[in-house]
């Protein structure tokens, strides 16, 4: 298990949702900007990654609170 200090956890909690939004923006919505056909596999995987990152953020917040 990764042992983070309180300040490091706060930074991670602050930045993980932004990373999740970047993943969805680039993988899911980015498909509409290309000439390739829409990929459901890529769309579902990007949404699943977003859910994982947001759930991990919630877990970190719950761990951070006394």
Q: Can you walk me through this structure?
A:
The structure is a single chain. By secondary structure, this protein is mostly helical. The protein has one domain (8-64). It has 2 helices and no strands. The protein has helices spanning 6-28, 40-64. α1 runs antiparallel to α2. The chain is elongated, with a radius of gyration of 15 Å. It starts with 5 loop residues before the first helix and ends with a helix. The model has no long low-confidence stretch (mean pLDDT 85).
Keywords for this structure?
66 residues, 73% helix, single chain, mainly alpha, 2 helices, elongated, 0% strand
Summarize model confidence as the mean pLDDT.
Answer: 85
Query: What are the low-pLDDT stretches, counting only 5+ consecutive residues below 50?
Result: none
Query: How many strand elements?
Result: 0
> Helix content range of the residues, please?
over 70%
Shape verdict: elongated
Counting helices, strands and paired strands, the structural category is mainly alpha
Integer count of domains: 1
- Individual helix count: 2
Major sheet: none
String of helices and strands: HH
Radius of gyration over C-alpha positions, nearest whole angstrom: 15 Å
> Span between N and C termini?
19 Å
Beta-strand residue percentage: under 5%
Please give the structural blueprint.
Layout: H1 6-28, H2 40-64
Helix pairs in contact: 1-2
């Amino acid at each position: 298990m990764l042992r983070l200090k309180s300040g490091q956890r706060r930074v991670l909690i602050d930045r993980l949702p932004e990373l999740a939004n970047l993943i969805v923006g680039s993988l899911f919505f980015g498909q509409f900007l290309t000439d390739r056909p829409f990929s459901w596999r890529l769309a579902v995987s990007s949404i699943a990654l977003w859910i994982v990152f947001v759930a991990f953020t919630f877990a970190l917040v719950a761990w951070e609170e006394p």
